[in-house]
Fold these 3 entries.
Entry 1:
Amino acid sequence: MDKDLCCVCQQPVDADAKQLGGRTYCVRHFAKVTQDRPGVWRAGLGMIAGQLGFVLLIEILVGLFKPAFSGWALVAVGVGLALVSALIWLVFFYQQDRLEPEPKGYVLSVFILGALLAQAIGIPLLDNVFEVQRWLPRSPLGGLLGAILVIGFVQEFLKYAAVRYSIFPLPEFDERVDGVIYGTAAGLGYATMLNINYIIADGGVHLQAGVIRIVVTALAQASFAGLTGYFLGRAKFEDEPSWWLPSGVALAAVLNGVFTTLRGELTTTALDLSGGGFNPWPGLLLATVAAAATFGALFYLIRRANQITLSGVDAEGGAE
Amino acid sequence: MSKQVRLLILCVTFLTVLACGAPNTLPPATPTTAAKPAKATATPTKEAAVAATPVSETTPSPTTFTGDDRQIRQTLLRATVQIIALVKEGGRLQPLWTGSGSILTPDGLILTNAHVVSDPDPNYQPDALGVAITVRSDDTPDLRYLAEIRAIDYDLDLAVIQIVSDLSGSAVDPKQLGLTYAPLGDSDALELGDLLHILGYPGIGGETITFTEGVVSGFTREPGVEGRAYVKTDATIAGGNSGGLAANLSGEIIGVPTQVGYGGAERFADCRYLADTNGDGYVNEYDNCIPVGGFINAIRPVNLAKSLVDAAKSGATVPTTPTPTRPKPGKTAGQASFSKITFAPAVDDYDQPTMAVTQLPSGATQLYACWEYEGMADGLTWEARWYLDGKYQSDVSWTPAPWKGGESGSWWLSVSNENGLIAGVYRLELYVEDQKLAEGSIKVGGAASPSTTPGEGLLIQGYVINANTRRGIEGALYIVLNPGVTVGDWNGDEDQVYTFAQTDINGYFELPYALERNQSYGILVWAEGYRPVIGDDVFIGDEASPFEVEVALQRE
Amino acid sequence: MTAVAKTLRRDRWADWAVIVLVALALLLGVWLRQATLYRAEDFTLGDAGISGRVFTGWVRQTGTDPLLTVRNPLSGSFNTVLELRSRALADEADATLVLDALALERAVTVDAYKTLSTSRVVVHSQTATQRTFTYVLVDHNPYVDRLPEVVRGVDVALRDEGRVIVVTYLAGSETFDADYRYFRTFVENLQY
């Protein structure tokens, strides 16, 4: 009891062990905490580019060949598209992570956990209990508030839980970046489940509009969950006040709600005589911008935190 | 994989499976009901579902009841109906008076008094007979069917009617009715002191079926009637029970409680003004009075009715006394009558309406009210009152003046305004000798009339689809607002709506009215669960009519 | 050690704070939902001396009979309707008379009209008569494919001096339970 334990691996440490945020680290794990992991960011970039490319590819293919799927075939193709979209990041990530990989099973597990939580709690809660579709479109202000309070908080909390109550306390969660990694995984799992539900519920979607919606959902959910994951990462390794985590979840929820409302506004076009009313492309643009901005910001913040730590400014406690 | 993570995944998988399988259960709304005030009747409160077996053959065999008194009473309850004489006033059926009746067969043959279903005076004939049946003993009777007279005897004051249609007038198949009935007994077998069950509906509306028990206290004779003319009882039966069911202990009908001395001037001994039968918004002496009250203590023996019942069963029969004539629409001193008022935008060279309208668009400059008349006479004082939104318009109304139109023919009155008639509800009331003979109303303004000349306006039709599946949305609304009203301004008032349509199962809709050209309209497309799509200032130019549109809505 | 203990306590606080925050947000969300769905504004029918509250977003129409019709455009294939009528009736007569007359009028314009039950209810601490009924609405337009819609309705006859005020609730059979609350709120807020 006199000896400190490393907060990550619970091994006893020397007296002069490094401290960070009130926690003690053994040498090995202190080095890991501040690891930069450029692979993660490359994977993030790859994901954004990959999703965009995926959309364009599908649009071109559908435009050229005009396949006429119907019934089960249409549903199957739709589900396939949703899974491909999810895989894009996973593939990029695993490829980039070759050097010092996260345990593959773990990332996948958090992904699946995110998906299950969406199906078991998130979607039924929003559709059947809150019935958001009934009252959100009624008024613009009410819609925004409702999007934040109900949709935002439910979704972000579930993704937060998928990370917090599974991998967060384990020693494998040993880097700041791990928060972003696992957060993104949970977010993509959640998004995949949303997409699959959306495809099946409508009995198969029109591919051109559908693939855009799939990608938009994936990018958005991954971004906000990544943000939550960043907060989790900092909470584990640094001396953050107790309102740090709630703020993180709240921030993610607010961004989620704002994004949802903005996406709705941008994709609903004005009615003219021949009809109209819908254009999905602005949604894609918005999602791309949001994802790029989020990951860019997270990359910058973590890089800065690592640099500060390594330069030894905070020998004991204190975040920047 | 660590045990913790695995366990967590297992739990969540379990929850997921549950969530997928669980039906969407919302607690059903329970209407606010208070305890029903118990009616002081002797009827049993528990429902014994006993019904006489509906036989699809010609004559149902009488059911013999063994023992169970409560079962008998249940059957008698169901077999006693309330008969409501209805008259058509102002286009609506209104109650005139009520009485009771007994169901004789599962096909809906009913025995009652003649004065309950008819009247020797052709001026007081009901236009229809409503039949209300008791489903549960503590419920008011349900008005379900309309019936017609099959056989009637005014001297005996007995009649047999048959259920022919439901409330809307569509014919019902008598064989499918399966009504609870009571068999006919032998009224000659009655003796002094025998117990009788008497059932009926004493009041006007709101009263549930009443059950009275009495004993046979005597018999009376009557010239022209063979055998027992009346069975007297010590029970005091309220007047509305007239025509109802009187049965012996075995549940067989042995007579019809009859209000003696009914008809003629005595009819209105206790006649009250209870309902607004002429539809003018007031309950006063201009309405039909509804006879209530009085007491009965005499029962017409059923044996006197048997020949009538046989005659009714064998087919349509001719009533033995003055045929009820087709009532003239309206009553007055003298025989004058007016037909229903027809409104039209114009009359032709023969003074006939060019078309019948129930509504005129705003901007219409003329309104004609046309009607036919019979039995008038020159010199009779007649009056026409115009009301706009309930307010009397003295400048266009006709004050009482001598009629100069002859005995019969057609007549019209008109109101006009060069700059367009003021929008509102116009009502015309026609009086002869201070009695209202006819009235009608029509709405001017509020909605546009269909374009009468093709090519003038633009008819919009098309599909409202789900943006992602491109499939039609059922029940979506395509709403066009009046020119000048933006969607943001619209406060939900239907008067600001120019026209609208709702999509069918394919998402297809057609606007019923054409949009005027060279005009801008605000258009709103709405469906539950989807984001609304709005277009302010949608300009209608020279597009070909009908114009196909496709609106995509995305789910929230 | 104290630093570590402090850290652990802080972590626990943070965990609970997140949960409390989310719970609060959801409660606010529920309140927002109720406020949005059931938002209402006042209306007055001066001539008839009746006032009450109608729901925002519902399409309104005033007239002579019925005095007021409000329709919910977002309730599915049959728009839920609330109607307000006033019929003169002597004080000693029973309200069932008016309801029967109404039934006769309706039966002519719709198909398969059937009265289901009549009962007494307590509204505004007086007894009112309530009748439930059903009918089928068929669109006879040959160019449009509408499925026949089963409609359930409730009439409540409220007594006033010299008249009966009838509030009618009409809803498609699937939305009847979900929208019933609107009917109850409307009747309870009625003043006459």
Entry 2:
Amino acid sequence: MSVHPLQIQDALNRRVFLRSTPAVTAAALASLGFAKQGFSKPTDRSASNNPIGLPGLPHIAPKAKRIIYLFQSGAPSQMDLFDPKPQMVAEQGKDLPESIRQGQRLTTMTSGQKNFPIASSIFKFAEHGESRMWFSELMPHMSKLADKWCMIRSMHTEAINHDPAITFCQTGSQLAGRPSIGSWVSYGLGSENEDLPAYVVLTSFGSGRKDDQPLYDRLWGAGFLSSKHQGVKFRNTGDAVLYLSNPPGVSTQARRSTLDRLSALNGQHHTQIGDPEIQSRIAQYEMAFRMQSSVPELLDTSKEPQHVLDAYGPDVKRPGSYAANCLLARRLAERDVRFIQLFHMGWDHHGGLPAAIRGQCQDTDQATAALINDLSERGMLDDTLIVWGGEFGRTIYSQGSITQDNYGRDHHPRCFTMLLAGAGIKGGLTFGTTDDYCYNIVADPVHVHDLNATIMHLLGVDHERLTYRYQGRDFRLTDIHGEIVKPILS
Amino acid sequence: MSQVSLQLRFVIGLCLLFASTNTLCAETGGINFSRDIRPILSDKCFQCHGPDEAKQESGLRLDDRKVALEPAESGERAIVPNHPDASEVIKRIAATDADSVMPPPDSQKTLTAEEIELLRKWIAEGAIYEGHWAFAAPERSQVPALPNLNSPTLKTPTAEIDANAWNNNPIDRFILSRLNQSELKPNSEATKETLIRRVALDLTGLPPTPTEIDANLQDNSADAYERMVDRYFASTHYGERMALNWLDYARYADSNGFQSDGSRDIWGWRDWVINAYNANIPFDQFTVEQLAGDMLPNATPEQIIATGFNRNHRLNGEGGRIVEEWFVETVIDRVETTGLTWLGLTFNCCRCHDHKYDPISQKEFYQMFAFFNSVDEQGVLAPAGKNGENTPPLFSMRTAVHADGIAQRERQMADLEGQVQKAKGNLSQLASAWAEERRTPQVDYASDWQQIVPSEVKSTGGAALTQQSDGSYLASEKNPANDSYEVTLPKLGNSLTGVLLEVMPDASLPNQSLGRGFNGNFVMTDFTVELVGGSLKKPREIKLARVEADFTQTGWPASEVISNSPKSKPPLKGWAVEGNNPERRLDRKIMFVMERAVKIPKGASVVIRFGNRSEYADHNIGRFRLSITSIAPEKISLGSSGMPADVLSAISKNPAEWNDAERKAVESYFLASVPNPIREYEAKLQAAKNELAEYQENVPTTMVMKEAKLRDAFVLVRGEYDKPAAKVARGVPAVLPPLPADAPADRLALAKWIVARNNPLTARVWVNREWERFFGMGLVKTTENLGSQAEYPVNAALLDWLAVEFMEPTTLPTVNGVAAKAWDMKALQKLIMTSAAYRQSSQVTPEKIEQDPDNRLVSRGPRFRLPGEIVRDTALAVSGKLIDKIGGPSVRPYMPAGVWDETSKYGNLRNYQHDKNEGLYRRSIYTIWKRTAAPPTMLLFDAPNREVCTVKRSRTNTPLQALSLLNEVTFVEAARNLASRMLRDGGSTVEQRLAYGFRLALARTPNDSEMQVLLSGLDADMQRFADSPEDAVRLLEFGESKLRADLSPAELAAFTLAANVIFNLDEFVTRE
């Protein structure tokens, strides 16, 4: 053999890459929202493949380079955590007045109840920080950060059951089929990281209610956007990224040799056929190879200092826990993954709420606070947006009977609380007011579309201008709604 | 502005309008309203001045010439034909101040200078309107003449084109005529090897075999190509390949979607689709049967099964869902899916308001809704509600296999019946023997248990407890997940040392057994005895020291019951007795003994509570009886508990001395309460009966449509289910032709209307999608939408010609000798596939990419990545492992660990276990599809998740796809099996073997330099595996298929990696 195969392959690769236009190569690298920094902006035609987003984006100077969205799936009870209603103690066990309920619809889980007995929260509330923000005793760690949080008590939504409600939060529609918020961001802004996707999803089961609430692929799906914008869910079983590991018995060297052959053969084929897609495929394989080392490096927390691990709490050592995911979220943020979304299940407390919510808070309180402190210490909280909350709230009245230390609460879309912190957010602000029964909003309502518009705004996106034409219509995350919630912006 | 510069600007305008290159807008000429003007008006103006009546600002609508020409509310005339400068439209769009410019700045829409110029020119030419092109029935276009290939005036130097090849098929003349307006020339024909692979993949989704390739290569006859195409049309795999897209349209899945996403059976419909394609039923019939087959006169089973199309939608079973809400969503889903699939129209805008772009009103939307709202169902998961249950209306899929299964079970029952009768004949003998045995040693029976008559019995969960003649209580009616029974004993005079609970079977209970669980079992987790009232200030629980039962189910011992306390947190373990097993369906006893005799305080009552707090919902006790005793605790035994006095007295005697009454008492007690052969056979017989019933119940069903009573339909304000407004009758949008007048306006009429000759959309939609199938992009790019926002067709004459030819064939070819019918799907495909356009090589030049990146003009053969399903199927076929079986229930191939459990602990689709044998190697179309966690590899390769109708997949190229092809067990195992084939059948040299594998996968032989790369890689791998043989073994053990023992592991492993390389080539995953 006169020429070493690797030399052939090198020569081919060089030829392929030298002849390729920057736009084509960038497009190749841009799939799955992967970016290659340093490439020039491609022309309009290949705009949708632009690694650094669509032309003209960001629309405005972004406050947040990235977002960590801590989704609390199942709907945490706002009146047991954030929105104290001490006046309800006197109403304990009494029927919810019709003047409050106003005939609003109920789920069929409680619509058949003969009465709607008020269950005041059994948890103690106190004011925290200079801002005197109220938190219940269940949140000893998050409450210490009162002055960093903006607490929106006047969130409201449209759906009354989990599946449509969580789909609504994620996609702006109760029905399946629309792109998720992270996919929109990937589509609009692209990725800043060469080896990791723009949109990463992490999930954890809660200890408060072990079987609740299921999650669905669609929550991070790309809908009608190109599927390369779908969120990449890091898995808790097996390879974190699907099929990341070589098959048994195949060493890194053997894999490198496979890839060299592939590159050489694909390169030869490209010379004959001329289709730039082939170059793109060569690039994808190289990126896959890089991911095989970058992802394990990302997941390896063994070099984290002990005090950092301790801050996140003992669960941090259990892979797939909320705490472990919070730490991972910080590591993803450090690597400039743009949209990081955690889903923590288990907040659906129709019965046995006190015990279940204690479990949930134990899962999330310390780790959430640790994440914020950790980002803060690294100077990253200034350009990272944190969102904490679920798909709707819960009713002041008990589902089923009340005992001294036990009650349950049904779904309540009319008001609930979410927390924001970090980039562009006014810390220490409690925004929005609910009535005495925590049933209706009396001031400053914030719709889910408003929240999504605000999140997009902080990321530098005008939610009205990031559209995608499908079935003859320009779709956007916020449908035809959404107002930026200006008072909460710093 | 001079005429010349206006002309120039006009041409530039057109170019920009198509957001494309100068090649595509070379089709010039005068202003074409549909192509040039309507898209501007639709996109930029109709939102406020369009068909939506609620939003017609200033009373102006620009979609209607009459209104547009009239003075608006302001008195200005928007459009004055021939006088652009007098037209308010032109003034406003050209204005520069924010107050008067149109579109207004807050609309985020702007007009380009070129667009303004186009509108100006259009008004100058008289502002001629046309309806939207796709709303007028297509007329047969004139087939262009073959251009003079040697004419020096042609842009395309067509001299190299084979005039014969491009003159045979009308499609080619349309293509050539369009290409002649550009600077591109067509490619020459692809090689035979490329073509056979292209055709095989397009028609069957499987690669051609070497035998098929050789036969084709050797066939030099003029019609060799056509016959090759015909052979693939005749393959039964054709239906599988075609069905793949159709399943996306129909949102087919094996689960119900939504929260718990349990299973459903509707694969019978999938089989129907595959068979329908294979039988080549015409598209009009294909349509009518799927939309309304149930309403055809004397509908056949197949026609009913076909209607599963519109039962494939999701069904919400979430606790708390409001049925009316989801009923509406389900019906809307049907309207949406039907509109998108057949008409290429998006109706959902009109759910809340009149359409912004298309002339469809909100009222018309609900008129369409009315066709689909009278199906005999609620739009939610069946009220029976168990996961994994099909929601009626259903149709039984009973087949010969099932008939055999039923007959076999009936024979088994007859055998057992005989055994029972035989044993019954021996009753007297058996009872005597038992009594004899029981007689010694004598026990003090009289001192044992005393049955009590409670003063109160209640169920905390609301079950009805009815006293039976034998003193037992039978539970009925409400059966909550976790019930508990509370029995208050009558005032007892003396002390108490033990309590006996008897649980008994009853015919009214599930499985005629003891418990209320669906299978007849129960779990008792708690049993407490409490003293209440009288002189006691508060209730006092009596400690239970000992528990004993006459039978326990493995893992569910009686001891669990006393180790639980009221404070224990559920779910708890407890006592169970295999009530689900018919052979164990016997009276059961459990006794609880106190530490010492409990003296009952004056006036106090004894309250006994027992129940189920296990994770097994509904597993409550069905029938029970309580007895007590006060003998010394250490003497208490289950003994002869509960035995009636007359039996006790009889068995103390020698059976020979029994009188008739005694014999009868013993025999009936023996029969009812003692394990005996008669009962054993009866239990077996009952089990067989149950099995038969279950088998019959499990004869698969498939979900179908069935009309119920006509339900009223209403316009829903803002689309909200609880805000009905005006009642509407069934009807179709007025912009389209009317329903046939001679039939009732029902679903069947709608189906027939969709495929009526005068429906302007259906045929265009279909031929456009077929174009997309073969050329990667439709003649109208937006194959999902042909409404007024759709792109003007890149070759409108060809689109209309094909649509008409599809409905009224004149030149559609025969397929396998069968003459083309109207709406003939195979013939249409064959016409396309036999065109020179289709047969071109897919070679790309920089010029072609520059001028026509998406190959809209078809100056080259199509080249694009295969769908994920086909990539997998091709790898399986090449490996020799593919199971060649059509149809049937879904199968479970390899999946990543935890595929269904990562994000959900709900529903019956959990804990995925892959099949062990053929299920691993069936075609991907049969892979079980759970909507909320769809097969991950397919999602990586752009499959939709099948929650809603999808008519077009994106086509991406990502590193995650690379990881899957490199590392997923499916592909690695397939590589190993391909390696085996190479070593076994490939020849004797390494080169021959590699070439053999390469050809199996790619239908061609590698060239020298390709062989060089493969060879040197193989050498290196051989060395690697020779150095670490354990690596070879580990690689070869990946996957379930058996390893061939006669091959050297190092060699096989090295060839496996060579095959792995081949499976990852761009050419392998691409249809060239």
Entry 3:
Amino acid sequence: MKLAARDIIKDYPGCRALDKVSFEMESGKVYALIGKNGSGKSTLVKLFAGVIQPTDGELLMDGEKLHFKTPKEAHDKGIVTVYQEMSLIPGLTVAENIFLNRMPKKGRMIDWKTAYRKADGLLKTMGVSIDPRALIKDLSMWQKQIVEITRAMSFSPEILMLDEPTSALAQHEVQNLLSFVRKLKEQDIIVIYITHKLQELKQVADEIVVLRDGEFIGQRPVGDIDNREIVHMMFGEVSLRHRPEDVVPGRDIVMSVRGLTQKRTFQNITFDLYRGEVLGIAGMLGSGRTELLRAIFGADKFQEGTVEIEGKRIEKFDPIHLIDAGVGLTPEERKTQGVILMHSVKDNLNYASIRANTIGKYIEDKKKRTENAKKQVRDLQIRIPDMDSPCSTLSGGNQQKVVVGNWLSINPRIMLYDEPSRGIDVNAKQQIFEIMWKGSKEGISTIFVSTELEELLEVCNRILIMCHGKLAGEVDPDKCPIDELYACCMSGEIPPEIVYRRKEA
Amino acid sequence: MRINEFHGRAVKIFILDHIIAIVLILLILFLSFAAPSFLTVTNWLNILKAISMKGVIAFGMTMVIIAGQIDLSIGSVVAIAGVIAAFACENLPGMSGMSLTAAAIIGMLTAVIFSGGLGAFHGFFQVRCGMPAFIITLAAQLFLYGLAGIICGGFPIAGKMPDWFNHIGVGRVGNIPIPAIILVIIFLVSFFVMGYTRIGRAVYAVGGNAEAARLAGINVMTTEIFCFAATAVFATIGGFINSAQVLQATFNFGRGWETDVISAVVIGGTSMTGGVGRISGTMLGIIFIGVIANGMTLLDVSVYMQYVIRATLLFCAVLLSIFLPKLKQKIS
């Protein structure tokens, strides 16, 4: 069986997600579909799954043209997708989940015996021992993922797509899943494995298909290619715009973090943050970067370690005390943690400063609130119909600026940005970076966490590398090409020539 | 033509925005014609007096619902507030020889402090343990019902309160019933708190998105305790008025009041999902419920029919609140 894509184009209003993508795949092999965020991986998956239709070009299965109007049509053709989000129902058994909506029946009643027997048979042919009577919620993450794949396989698919199946798994679980996927090859189907983790694809894939900015970059057997080449294919020649010359860290330490440890997520994190510095934290998904920021801000508990701000040790870790120490955090999930969507722009710009903008201790100062909101809207160039429109009506970029403005109104000493550029357009991204640089010149220190490595290189004075919850070292963005940075995040090893050295004035 | 269209749209949006008030006015007009005694000062003062007990509680309930929670315990709080006050009046003078007035005041203070503590209990377990407020306050409802029964021994404590206590329920200042005055005072206090203070803003934030509020440095527990405590204290005041009117107290006073109280809040436009709502809306909802009860009584509608009509009203109010935004979007 052969699957081919010919000159696939997919346009969205204002942007081309896929531009003339062509490739061929054949059964009995695992293909790793790779690319950085926004490269068009997900768009391609959705096309195969019938969720969206191509603007132009064609998909061929053994020479036959495929036109899917709905996901069901793709499913009927034998194209089955296992998405990142788990779609299992936790309170039901493994068998029920596998045969959801098509449980074997005896007359009008469910035939439980057959259901368990068939489920057991399926799981056995997949070579795993999971009890079909177990409840999903009692399984570990990788077992759940395997049940999900088993369900997909029970449709006897021709093509199985796995969308980052390991992203939710712990390190030791990944191996179990990978060996499971390798076995799938024996079933003579095409497995398309979407990932951004290099070590995995080496273990699991036969060939890689690389996309970058919606373009097909190449298709190569895994055996013929080394990591450096793969990264190069993923990122291409990156020309970095550079931060302004006058964004330089001061000489005094604003915050020192010592031995911070949160069981299972990060251990023994120690670093200093200088005045006006823009400090990046790089690391793969699950490296503990977000958790570290949240712990410093007091949003989550941690077990060991200390944080000193301006020489004063923080005794109580909760957002209230950290705000009092002059720290602000723009959280990772903008819509669920950053703004209150149903409330107005004005309200959302005034939550962090709720205790400051008062007459006496308890009465709200309406005038100060309005002034502050106006100032932030002006300074950050937030584009809104008016102050009273709910935040839910704003674009992602403007929402993010509202989150930032909310924090700038406490006149912070330290700003923690967690994925501030996620889901916002290029222009807004650039404006967010400029806000960081401007803050830096005014003496605000910044910690910036991002999945987008080129952003870190562009924006930061110094980059910490986190790998499996440990601080692997610090890198000088001026000496570090993007593929090296990527390799550092993957391996946790930092070549001496790119290690950050403090410039002595 | 254009201008007309624009005006038409503006009018439609105005109507949608004030739909409850408009329906209320139509209802009042209808009742004025149908029942000649409806539109008199005396009758209106009666409406206010009748609705005052549930009304004061509705303002607290508004805060709780805006904060994204619910309080089902208020009926039992009404009962136990009266029982505690009456119990003090019955026993303290005999035990320590203090005056009846002092005993009544001590009893009332105890009830207020008790309800404040109850609010703290509700808020603490909701926030710290993530228990649903529905269950916490349902348990409290049963518990306090039983506790009130234990304290009063299952029989009304009657005729033990001082005469002045009676005034809280039936007294008048000039021509205005004291319960109506209490209702207006609590309305003004709640209106001020929710519109002009830090804690009021925090209530909206916590109800809108508790996690975002927490990360913005808002103390979620304090905020919820405030709402639950306000509701319980207001329910205690409602309980005083109730007991004062009949000069007795027993465990089944206030039973089932939560239905009317929550109805008033919801009819007033407060969203059960939290984060949205207005005290002034609740005032409107209270009057609405009062007017309907009063009008139906004047028109000799049976009690059972009154239930049917009130239920329909509640249902339609919520249905409306779901479709209003969509309708509005369609128009504009």
